[in-house]
């Protein structure tokens, strides 16, 4: 199944203008020029340490920008009023933190509720609606450490979605889950995209995820390639991105990786 972005892509939501940045003096992003338009569904590929997570966090304003500028919704990144939902990598979560599924989803309302943690009736209805949509209604009082990897991922997706975001940013959302859960997550994201949500995600999964997206960016601290999978899935681009020999094959009009050494 090839996921399709929205047809109307005229409005620029996020623009990177020659951006270099990173953490504690280490430059992880180097001269990034990138435009993300309303309604796009974009996947980012690259090896560990290539700057994928850094790029996501730069949209959230969580890294130091050494040069260049990020413009979000027509404003400086630190003044943006765009409602952004964020799903982190599961590996970065402290699973010993005592919090239930319900409480974690409710945390997603911090950006939009003046009264958090005292959530009003409409907020509670939103939490119930999103938990039902993600199949979490029977787990709401469970501690997150008691959940399976797929249930944990859906819970964090619920936290990101409960505030009805304009942009959804996900760091490896299909990592560590089984094939069925992966398909369910991608189906949810596809549905959200068709409802107008702009999606930017990282992934290590070339064939099962990235090859199905309308736009993919290959990143190795700088942008190596940007376009549709059929345009950029080449041995040259993969070698420049991963520093490894990668072979591709075309099947039913789509390109796939068949070997990575």
Describe this structure in words.
There is one protein chain. With 261 residues, the protein is α/β, with parallel strands linked by helices. 26% of the residues lie in helices and 30% in strands. It is built from seven helices and twelve strands. It has helices spanning 52-60, 101-106, 121-133, 149-161, 179-194, 229-232, 235-242; strands at 12-23, 26-37, 41-45, 64-72, 75-76, 84-87, 167-171, 198-202, 215-220, 222-227, 246-251, 254-260. It has a six-stranded mixed beta sheet with strand order 6-7-8-3-9-10, with helices on both faces. Strands 2-1-4-5 form a four-stranded antiparallel beta sheet, covered by helices on one side. The longest helix is centred in the last third of the chain and has 16 residues, at 179-194. The protein is globular and about 50 Å long. The two termini are 27 Å apart. The mean pLDDT is 87.
Question: How do you describe this structure in short?
Answer:
The protein is of the alpha/beta class. 26% of the residues lie in helices and 30% in strands. The strands form 3 sheets. A 6-stranded mixed beta sheet has the order 6-7-8-3-9-10, sandwiched between helices. A 4-stranded antiparallel beta sheet has the order 2-1-4-5, with helices on one face. A two-stranded antiparallel ribbon has the order 11-12.
């Amino acid at each position: 199944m090839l996921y399709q972005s929205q047809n109307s892509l005229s409005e620029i939501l996020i623009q990177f203008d020659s951006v270099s940045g990173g953490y504690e003096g280490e430059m992880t992003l180097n001269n990034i020029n990138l435009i993300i338009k309303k309604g796009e569904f974009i996947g980012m590929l690259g090896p560990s340490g290539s700057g994928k997570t850094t790029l996501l966090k730069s949209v959230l304003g969580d890294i130091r920008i050494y040069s260049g500028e990020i413009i979000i919704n027509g404003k400086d990144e630190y003044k943006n009023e765009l409602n952004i939902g964020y799903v982190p990598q599961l590996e970065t979560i402290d699973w010993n933190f005592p919090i239930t599924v319900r409480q974690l989803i409710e945390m997603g309302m911090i950006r939009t509720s003046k009264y958090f943690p005292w959530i009003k009736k409409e907020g509670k209805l939103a939490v119930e609606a999103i938990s039902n949509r993600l199949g979490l209604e029977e787990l709401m009082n469970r501690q997150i450490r008691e959940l399976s990897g797929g249930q944990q991922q859906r819970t964090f997706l619920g936290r990101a979605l409960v505030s009805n975001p304009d942009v959804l940013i996900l760091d490896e959302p299909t990592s560590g889950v089984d094939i069925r859960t992966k398909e369910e997550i991608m189906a949810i994201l596809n549905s959200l995209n068709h409802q107008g949500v702009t999606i930017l995600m990282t992934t290590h999964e070339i064939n099962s995820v990235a090859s199905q997206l309308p736009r993919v960016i290959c990143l190795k601290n700088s942008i190596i390639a940007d376009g549709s999978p059929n345009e950029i899935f080449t041995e040259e681009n993969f070698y420049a991105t991963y520093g490894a020999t990668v072979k591709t094959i075309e099947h039913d009009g789509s390109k796939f990786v068949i070997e990575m050494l």
